[in-house]
Amino acid sequence: MTVATPDHSSSSLQNAAETPLQNAPLFTPLTVGDLRLAHRVVLAPLTRMRSTQPGDVPNALNATYYAQRATPGGLLISEATQISLEGKGYPATPGIYSEEQIAGWRVVTDAVHAKGGYLFAQLWHVGRISHSSLHPEQGLPVSASAVVPTEGKTLNAAFQPVDFETPRALAIEELPRVVADYVHAARSAKAAGFDGIELHSANGYLLDQFLEDGVNQRTDAYGGSVENRARLLLEVVDAVIAVWGAGRVGVRLSPWGKFNSMSDSNPVPLFTYVLEQLSARGIAYAHLVEPRANGGADGSLDTSAPDAAASFRKAFPGTLIAAGGFLGESASRTVASGEADAIAFGRWFISNPDLPRRLQLGAALQPYDRSSFYGGTDKGYTDYPTLEETSAR
Ligand SMILES: Cc1cc2nc3c(=O)[nH]c(=O)nc-3n(C[C@H](O)[C@H](O)[C@H](O)COP(=O)(O)O)c2cc1C
Fold first, then answer.
1. Candidates 3, 5, 7, 96: which one to mutate for ligand 1, based on the most atoms within 8 Å of Cβ?
2. Which fold has domain 21-392?
3. Ligand 1 touching residue 198 (CB < 6 A)
């Protein structure tokens, strides 16, 4: 059985030692919107399901986790954080809409800033990947259309794997409210001291459900043509730019992504249009998930699809972050070739809090423990040692 957790990464070799000199391109400065980064090793957004309950409130342990991964001038992207209760998809993921959540995130952003790092909030509405047990008052999950995910299971509020529910299609009159929820979350992120926001429009969550015609079967102004399917995302982008300014807004997309039962009949024109529109708005960065990171379970390695960053580079000449299956050498090559400007690391950054330093030195990487990815305590979260801590033991 596959449980559709937010991890859509494939398994890969562990403990790979790296070649220091070839990593040099990763350690040159980079302008990302209004920020000037000192290096190009980015923390990918990583759901860890460890917020304080009830209320989905970030806490001191979460602050320690992010601070451990912060470096002077380095960019961290937060775990996906729901913009509303309706947008919540898994137990214990943090929110960014209540006063308590804002105060909790403030502890996190202060800790990252104390280390000289930057932190963007990844704003998230899961759409049909939600489960009614997570928001009993609001009933069924919502989506572009009433199309149920075909593969795997989801997690209910009690962390148990359960079948997906058929979502309720959002009425066109409700969409301004969804945009307003994003605006409220964007304002909340500002109040919490983040340095910017990333819209999660990847991996089969709500904005992606509107983009791709495997889910979006609407016949109104938000369905059908590429322009119509991109309308909700671009309305949200414009609305959050009004809060933050374009130089503080990033967007994550997964053009070839199949995770969460996604598909599109013709992804190249769709994502070319979306990226051209984002480029015209001058956003801080586009963040593309590479196809080799597909699959909800270990072992699924999708080599059939072309590289996302290389395929869409022309459509988005601005700052491009690529993520999915990178190690130091492949990251360095990708940056040196100009296909991407920075690389976001997920699993290796979980188990190597000092990943930028390890990549720079060509040091061995510690293996990650998949069983502690989601939920739990400090184990597998804040207890991975740095190089210095290892040698002191
Ligand atoms: C534990 C875990 C949680 C994840 N949570 C998120 C998330 O909240 N938002 C998101 O956009 N991607 C999420 N992803 C995907 C990662 O950001 C990244 O794209 C993926 O792990 C591939 O990169 P990697 O090969 O460096 O791990 C998650 C991945 C993992 C392993």
1. 7
2. TIM Barrel (3.20.20)
3. no
Measured by CA distance, the residue closest to atom 12 of ligand 1 is 45
| Secondary structure in 3-state letters for the chain | CCECCCCCCCCCCCCCCCCCHHHHHHHCCEEECCEEECCCEEECCCCCCCCECCCCECCHHHHHHHHHHCCCCCEEEEEEEECCCCCCCCCCCCECCCHHHHHHHHHHHHHHHHCCCEEEEEEECCHHHCCHHHCCCCCCCEECCCCCCCCCEEECCCCCEECCCCCEECCHHHHHHHHHHHHHHHHHHHHCCCCEEEEEECCCCHHHHHHCCCCCCCCCCCCCCHHHHCHHHHHHHHHHHHHHCHHHEEEEECCCCCCCCCCCCCHHHHHHHHHHHHHHCCCCEEEEECHHHCCCCCCCCCCCCCCHHHHHCCCCCCCEEEECCCCHHHHHHHHHHCCCCEEEECHHHHHCCCHHHHHHHCCCCCCCCHHHCCCCCCCCCCCCCCHHHHHHC
Each of the 393 residues of the chain gets a pLDDT tens digit; together they read 334 555 444 334 444 555 666 679 999 999 999 999 999 999 999 999 999 999 999 999 999 999 999 999 999 999 999 999 999 999 999 999 999 999 999 999 999 999 999 999 999 999 999 999 999 888 999 999 999 999 999 989 888 999 999 999 999 999 999 999 999 999 999 999 999 999 999 999 999 999 999 999 999 999 999 999 999 999 999 999 999 999 999 999 999 999 999 999 999 999 999 999 999 999 999 999 998 754 334 444 455 667 899 999 999 999 999 999 999 999 999 999 999 999 999 999 999 999 999 999 999 999 999 999 999 999 999 999 999 999 887
Name residue 333's amino acid.
R
Q: Is 49 in the pocket of ligand 1 (CB under 6 A)?
A: no
Ligand 1 mean position, distance from CA 393 (Å): 30
Q: Which residue ranges make up each domain of the chain?
A: 21-392
Q: What is the pTM of this model?
A: 0.95
Please confirm, yes or no, whether 205 is among the known catalytic residues: yes
Catalytic residue among 65, 90, 97, 205: 205
Ligand 1 in reach of 122 Cβ (< 6 A): yes
